[in-house]
Amino acid sequence: MRLPSIRRSQGRQGPQGPLGSRVHPARRRRRWRTPAAALLAAALTVTGLASAGPLVAPASAAPSGVTATAGNVTGFTRSGNTFTITASGGAKARVVLARADIFRLWLSPDGSFANDPAGSDLAPTTDFGPVTASHSDAGAYYRITTGSLSIRVNKKPLQFSVYRADNATPVWQETQPTSWTGNRTTQYLARGADEQFYGTGLRLGEWALRGRTVPIAVDNRWRENDNASPAPFYMSTNGYGVMRNTWAPGSYGFNAPTTLTHDEKRFDAWYFTGDSLKSVLDAYTDVSGKPFMAPMWGFELGNADCFNASNPDYQGDHNRLRHLTTPDVVGYAADARAADMPSGWFLPNDGYGCGYTAPLKSTVDALKAKGFQTGLWTSTGLGSIADEVGTAGSRGVKTDVAWIGSGYKYAFNGVQRAVDGIEKNSDARRFVWTVDGWAGTQRNAVVWTGDTHGTWDDMRWHVPAITGAGLSGLNYAAGDIDGIFGGSPQTYTRDLQWKAFTPAFMTMSGWGATNPSAGYQDKQPWRFAEPYLSVNRKYLQLKMRLMPYLYTMSRVAHESGVPSTRAMVLEYPDDPVARGNLTSGQFMAGDSFLVAPVVSDTSVRDGIYLPAGTWTDYWTGRTYAGPGWLNGYRAPLDTLPLFVKGGAVVPMWPQMNYTGEKPVSTLTYDIHPRGSSSFSLYEDDGRTRAHASGAYARQQVGVTAPAGGSGAVTVSVGAPIGSYTGKPASRGYEFTLHVASAPATVTVDGSPVAGLASKAAYDSAASGWFFDPADRSGVLWIKTGTKAGAFTVAATGTSLPAAESLPAASPIDRSAWSLVHADSEETAAENGAAARAFDGNPATQWHTAWSSGTPAALPHEIQIDLGARYAVDGLGHLPRQDGGVNGRIGGYEVYVSDTTADWGPPVATGTFADTAAAKAVALPPKKGRYLRLRALTEAGGRGPWTSAAEITLTGRPAP
User: Fold this and answer.
1) 3-state SS class at 815
2) What is the CB neighbour count within 10 angstroms for residue 156?
3) What is the dihedral of CA 945, 950, 953, 954, to 10 degrees?
4) What is the 3-state secondary structure (H, E, C) of 447-504?
């Protein structure tokens, strides 16, 4: 386990008294064996909280010293691709061109350029060959021109701006000179009218950052809106990204102007430009390093726990059943296989005094015989890693906060030592998990969200957190399934469902609740009763079948920096809905799957946004035409809302419980034909670093089909090009084409394939086809037999599924909302301020005042400025979710107006039921900028109170 966490009560004291508190005691005392860890322990001791604040004060603290700037330009010289600017205040700046689209801007207040603490750690690759560039004096500024950019150096005062090569289209512009004090430097940039920002590492919350201030600092608190693995990197929809070349903490305020601060007396940044967010990520990771390529077993479910509890040094329960010595882990491996439950690796030694029973090798070998790899968890360092990897055969490392919790360069170096320990003592690939990352960590490690809780609310913000990490090039980002504290069978199952569509995931055992069943605290997916057991198996099996698809998507990340888990904006950058946090609760798994996790205790999922194109429900085959919003989606416990993009080509393995359990004697391509599409399958040995030397193969698959209606579907399969150890000389192929009607003919390379009368006959045949209209609204199954080279499959006379249109109304973005008026709000005994009714966090609420004097009488009301004019056609109301019942709105009125001086008649009236469930009201479309919600009565009649956890609206802009 990591740092023990003592959480202060978040229970709400309301007019009915306290509504509950919850304290998570430290389960174990921790030993600190390194100087950095000792400092961390001292900080925790002083505060009395294990999840104490930042070890280094973030840049929001008050500055010290006088603020200075460079002054005016007094000189401009060029040496090769380095341009040096001298300023009147004694400062100097350098513009270093690395590529036509990449440059470094370094401002030295003392003009020496001697202070370079990051060196090549964060930017290991900066030599891309010669750069064709020119410069000129444009009067008010000097101009540096490449094939992609025009960099302007303003003379009076020294300021920088960047334009496209036309010198007319702005990319970014300083609004005032960069300034510094004795310990802080800040850059100020203009913010575009609709410019959006992404990045800053593994931020625990929504990923669209306009209007937010984000600390770029390590604090190891691991709660919403903290930054678990900060990165001094962000990118903008203007087509650029920035990495500050520093280890210093900072703060980025994406306001107007944008203020970008780090705690050091220097400015040093790499700038990357492109024509898309994907191209910016590509350039950023060209310099900072591409995401590493994990071994295949690293995509399988992992489990971390202590199986050496009898060790006297262990700081936990010494009598844990079936966890007394390290070989006990083999019993758990046997349980997994007996339950037919896919999983691939164990970390059998909790780092805090657990250790492992020697000799380690016998346990590693026994696990390997059951298809499991072994990793080790360290809270102290890597003193024995050469023997653990080279002799015993361990293959993974988890670096814990007790060792690398001071973060920054110390943590970065610790991760690098773990990488070296694996790769210098074996032919295996790096597989390291770290809780404290920085820019460049994507090339070395999985980052995860720290010590979190098995609650619906934690799951809610985990979705955008893990998705948003990819917007900083972090391909492998994870959070413990169902957290480390608490949890339930329901939250575990829902959390595992969606995380199965991310590259790496793991359970943290031993810290969960002891109920509802004995052994539940193990948090192993096979330790649950039905129906949870079967649902867990279903999604783990699906991930194993999708291994060639997900593995290929991570190869794309390895080559381009574009993550496997993608925010919608990466795939749909021009869609205004996809650009912001309206889609932060869903993501793309690669380029074909849209995943919309269920993160509350419900069987109905609302607010699923399907962008332009066609989208097919993975489970039912029902097809929708985007763009539009899908509400009321039926999602019982066993159903993750999952949609496949029209044109998708998805390679799938036979079912197996771990990589290599069975030969891939037949490769299936699951295809949703729609127009022209393609897929390039990537394959290698899955274990070693031979791929880095070119030992891999690719297979190109192209599909042509009508855009809709009837016609022929043709699948052209290329021969696998390349070689690697274990590559099959030939294999069988199966195709599942999602079409609406049986074909007239099916051919392979022009030769007819026999149609079969039943699925049973098809399953037993070596080749043939069968159309099943009842299978997901229509599936055409085709087997070709064994193939070694290229071939073509064609189905004529079939038809594609018809696509249903979706409602056009969309949620109104709440980031610009502000409170106009609330007649009453509680702020003395709690923060029940009215703005909490639209802050995006269902755990907070507006509550009318109750703690002092006589409470205000009903009716109560809240007035909200929407920030712009809309045609409002729907209101959503989520009652308080903290377990309290008073204040639920009963009778209500809704008003929409262009002015708060004249509301006019209500657009809707009615009565809400006395339940905690979300409520929705359809409104006749009404244009206006302001919303007024009046609570006329309290549901249940318990008192004169009103409360609301969340208020949402749907509608369209109405300029």
Assistant:
1) coil
2) 11
3) -140
4) EECCCCEECHHHHHHHHHHHHHHHHHCCCCEECCCCCCEECCHHHHHHHHHHHCCCCC
Query: Are 787 and 829 spatial neighbours (Cβ–Cβ below 8 Å)?
Result: no
Report residue 784 as tokens: 């070709």
State the burial class of residue 555 (Cβ atoms within 10 Å of its Cβ: 0-12, 13-18, 19+): buried
pLDDT score of 250 more than 60: yes
Q: Which residues contact 291 (CB under 8 A, 6 or more apart)?
A: 285, 442, 443, 473, 474, 475, 476, 554, 557, 558, 561, 563
User: What token pair was written down for 82?
Assistant: 């380095």
Say if residues 345 and 374 touch (Cβ distance below 8 Å).
yes
H or E stretch at 243: strand 240-244
User: In this structure, are residues 655 and 546 in contact, taking their beta carbons and an 8 Å threshold?
Assistant: no
Instruction: Give yes or no for a contact between 770 and 781, defined as CB atoms under 8 angstroms apart.
Output: yes
Nearest-CA neighbor of 920 among 519, 615, 632? Answer: 632
**What is the phi-psi region of residue 883: left when phi exceeds 0, alpha when psi lies from -120 to 50, beta otherwise?**
left
Q: At what angle do helices 277-288 and 547-560 cross, to 10 degrees?
A: 70
The answer to whether the CB of 903 falls within 8 A of the CB of 895 is: yes
pLDDT in tens, 22-38: 222 233 323 233 333 33
Contact between 658 and 371 under an 8 Å Cβ cutoff? The reply is yes
Structure tokens at 97: 């061109």
Residue 900 corresponds to which tokens in the numbers above?
């708060």
Query: In this predicted structure, what is the pLDDT of residue 773?
Result: 97
The amino acid at 606: D
Q: Phi/psi of residue 336, each to 5°?
A: -60, -45
Which of 160, 156, 123 is closest to 140 using CA atoms?
156
352 pLDDT tier (thresholds 50, 70, 90): confident
Would you state the structure tokens that stand for residue 109, as one six-digit string? 């207040």
Query: pLDDT above 70 covers what percent of the chain?
Result: 92
The whole-angstrom separation of Cα 523 and Cα 600 is 20
β pairing state of 446-448 and 477-478 = parallel
761-769 long-range Cβ contacts below 8 angstroms, 24+ apart: 769/743, 769/795
For residue 709, how far is the Cα from the chain centroid?
37
Helices 489-499 and 456-469, interaxial angle, to 10°?
10
Q: HSE on the CB side for 565, CA within 13 Å?
A: 30
**Mind listing the pLDDT tens digit for each residue in 62-88?**
345 789 999 999 999 999 999 999 999
User: Residues 6 or more apart from 390 whose CB is under 8 A from it?
Assistant: 425, 426
Q: What is the DSSP string of 187-209?
A: EEE---TT--EEEEEEESS-S--
Nearest to 265 by CA among 103, 91, 413: 91
Give the Cα separation of 911 and 664 in Å (integer). Answer: 59
CA distance 1 to 8: 20
CA-to-CA separations, 167 to 129, 154, 277, in angstroms, rounded = 24, 14, 21
42 Cβ contact partners less than 8 Å away, ≥ 6 residues apart: none
Judge whether residue 54 has pLDDT over 50: no
